[in-house]
Known about the structure:
Blueprint: H1 8-16, H2 23-37, E1 43-46, H3 52-64, E2 68-72, H4 102-111, E3 118-122, H5 125-131, E4 136-141, H6 147-157, E5 161-169, H7 184-194, E6 198-204, E7 207-212
Parallel strand pairs: 1-2, 1-4, 2-3, 4-5
Antiparallel strand pairs: 5-7, 6-7
Helix pairs in contact: 1-3, 2-3, 5-6, 6-7
The protein binds S-adenosyl-L-homocysteine (SAH) and magnesium ion.
Amino acid sequence: xxxxxxxxxxxxxxxxxxxxxxxxxxxxxxxxxxxxxxxxxxxxxxxxxxxxxxxxxxxxxxxxxxxxxxxxxxxxxxxxxxxxxxxxxxxxxxxxxxxxxxxxxxxxxxxxxxxxxxxxxxxxxxxxxxxxxxxxxxxxxxxxxxxxxxxxxxxxxxxxxxxxxxxxxxxxxxxxxxxxxxxxxxxxxxxxxxxxxxxxxxxxxxxxxxxxxxxxx
Length: 217
Ligand code: SAH
Ligand code: MG
């Protein structure tokens, strides 16, 4: 049986990586990923950043014998650009002067010993989704927070979630008072439920886990 919680060294690697996922949500992500991995299909993340959540997906993929795929253009979201609230100067390429989180991601994944379990795709989510053509056990949407990006992530990736597979959405804030970067992920979550293709399984802080239970995303 695959474990339902990551080993301490994996949790240490997760805590040591830059990123935007608190530990309780990380544990919920891991448990969902282990469950979905049992379907024998890949686990896909939109929004790698520096690999914090990827470490957990990758460890769940290892435990269940599947691959984790993670998609990011590595140039950062709007709110992570220089001058914005979520900017981290260490994510800027010193030569180009633009954000590049790919080296930090690769370092974190190497340190965690998980490189063999991850396929990193560098590109724009909708563009990657257009060439994707195989079923997924899990899709974790944690990319851009504008309506344009969040909607494109849903439309591009939700159709690939296999029957019985899981759709996870991060940064879902039903109360506008709680939101940090807008309510687009919340609107996508409502749309997924309204489609009739997904049923809610659990909520951990801003992480929603839905299961694909029907057609017509
Ligand atoms: N999952 C990460 C956080 C992701 S932050 C963690 O656990 O810490 C959001 C990421 O989405 C950023 O790295 C940004 O570059 C990426 N992103 C935003 N819009 C994107 C798009 N349209 N295509 C690909 N990546 C995108
Ligand atoms: Mg997030």
